[in-house]
Amino acid sequence: LVTIAVMATMTGIAVKILTTLLRSERLGIEHVTRLATVSRLSRPFRADIHAATDLKLSADKQQPLVRITTADQRQIQYEIQPQGLFRTEQRPAQPLAAKDLLRLQGTRWRIVESPGPPRLLTLVIETPDSFAVERQQPTGAAREMHIEAIVGRDYRDH
Fold it and tell me: CB–CB of 142/130 below 8 Å?
């Protein structure tokens, strides 16, 4: 009976450790996927904002977040769809090209423009955080990531 009790206790502890390890792995993969997706979004977003000659922001949920016109007359827009954040690009005399850039569950997006020169646009990406980074932060809190770009000017110019 003692042997069976010890084995049952050890099995219970092993199961608890295994479930904790599997949960940690799942959360780690989710976190890395989120960061990789945001990283892939940052390059085209910054390039589009740097290339902008005209830019229109919208606070209306039915309208795209931003519409960009470039010097070579490309029309680019970022809009929120139920499936994710979409970037569409229209080149003169070419068919419309659409690309799904960001697809994360429960993510909210907004664009903030800072006043004054230089004109700076920040894409704020708010995603639910599945695990607490600090002890004071409750599990399930939102995490904000920012992608900043200067309108019409490449950051490498200065």
Answer: no
